UniProtKB/TrEMBL annotation:
Organism: Guptibacillus hwajinpoensis
GO cellular component: cytosol
InterPro entries (UniProt xref): Citrate_synth-like_lrg_a-sub, Citrate_synth-like_sm_a-sub, Citrate_synthase, Citrate_synthase_AS, Citrate_synthase_bac-typ, Citrate_synthase_sf
This protein's name: Citrate synthase
Domain of life: Bacteria
Taxonomic lineage: Bacteria, Bacillati, Bacillota, Bacilli, Bacillales
Protein family per UniProt: Belongs to the citrate synthase family.
Pathway participation: Carbohydrate metabolism; tricarboxylic acid cycle
Length: 361
């Protein structure tokens, strides 16, 4: 029997995360991802994902310091970015720079300082390229800021509001890992050949670049923009439902009930009602869920993580072309965790195929 796309095939035994779409569960190493997003920093979450335990105070300080020091681009790395074609998209830029970092210092099995090296530099690559493309001076990283706070600072040239950092940090944590998805599987396949960490992450970026995996939630952004311009949430949503249009950002292929990531982001941003964008996002969500129950009572359709990703993206004024790169900056932590796990008990991943061609005469 052929399982197209390997759907339903178990290819790994992992302690990193549980994605249970039927029950709406997302667990990181025995803890609810939602709880981690509410109570922990990105640095603590990444350390936990890699090690299975939370860092003690001195361990967190060392990890945070190492990660912040890894943000700096060398002169040679800046020159590589500067020489890339102007029409090269951001995902290709990240892929190229991380590939260039895969020198002889990276080896099998992957070491933790290699993971820190890659995780720390991705936001800087994005910020440097973005500001360069927009004729803005580069903002050097600020080691006193958190991983996410510094990312926003490098992009905008000023310290972001606390609730914007809090919302984006929760997003980073809730999207850093999501089981054996296409990009993570790619990373593990590469790691299984005893290749190095930079190669595995570079391959994962190639998978993330595809619109079926890491595509930006432009449909959600368009929906929110249309509602904002019209001013009447229910009228716009009813018109779409009457026209048999899909409400972008509602429903999920994996989660047949509420998407736990969207639930967490909704709860975390529910205190930000003084922010116009977040207030509107919550009103749209509540109205859409009510109308979907009215129009499609036989289906459980709720906001998914893409909906709240778009809401957060709009609230912090992040350009839409930076959504997938930002998603990549977050998911990089999960890819690295999976490479470490693959290295611990490695066996080359090599599925079979069924030949459907003709035979020679």
């Amino acid at each position: 029997m052929i399982h197209a796309g390997l759907e339903g095939i178990v290819a790994a035994d992992s302690k990193i995360s549980l994605v249970d779409g039927k029950n709406g569960f997302l667990v990181y190493r025995g803890e609810w991802a939602k709880k981690i997003a509410k109570e922990r920093s990105f640095e603590e979450a990444a350390y936990f994902l890699w090690n299975g335990t939370y860092p003690k105070a001195e361990e967190l300080e060392r990890f945070t310091t190492s990660l912040s020091e890894a943000r700096t681009l060398t002169k040679a790395q800046k020159e590589i970015i500067d020489r890339l074609p102007a029409n090269m998209d951001m995902m290709a830029v990240i892929r190229t720079l991380l590939s260039a970092k895969g020198s002889e210092e990276f080896s099998f099995p992957a070491k933790h300082d290699e993971g820190i090296c890659l995780l720390g530099i991705v936001p800087t690559i994005i910020a440097y390229r973005y500001r360069s493309q927009n004729d803005l001076p580069f903002i050097e990283p600020d080691t006193s800021l958190s991983h996410v706070g510094n990312y926003l600072y490098m992009l905008n040239g000023e310290r972001a509001e606390n609730h914007h950092v809090q919302a984006l940090t929760a997003y980073f944590i809730l999207t850093m890992e999501h089981g054996l998805n296409a990009s993570t599987f790619t990373a593990r396949v590469i790691a299984s050949t005893e290749s190095d960490l930079a190669s595995a992450v570079t391959g994962a970026i190639g998978a993330m670049k595809g619109p079926l995996h890491g595509g930006a939630p432009t449909g959600v952004i368009d929906l929110l923009q249309e509602i904002k311009q019209d001013g009447d949430v229910e009228k716009v949503l009813r018109r779409k439902l009457d026209n048999k249009e899909k409400l972008m950002g509602f429903g999920h292929r994996v989660y047949k009930t509420k998407d736990p990531r969207a639930v967490a982001l909704s709860e975390i941003t529910s205190t930000f009602y003084d922010d116009e964008e977040f207030a509107m996002a919550h009103e749209v969500e509540q109205t859409a869920v009510r109308l979907l129950q009215e129009y499609k009572p036989d289906r459980n359709l709720y906001a998914n993580v893409e909906y709240y990703a778009a809401a957060i993206l709009r609230a912090i004024d992040l350009p839409t072309e930076l959504f997938t790169p930002t998603f990549t900056a977050a998911r990089c932590a999960g890819w690295i965790a999976h490479v470490y796990e693959q290295n611990e008990n490695n066996r080359i991943i090599r599925p079979s195929s069924v030949y459907s061609g003709s035979m020679p005469e």
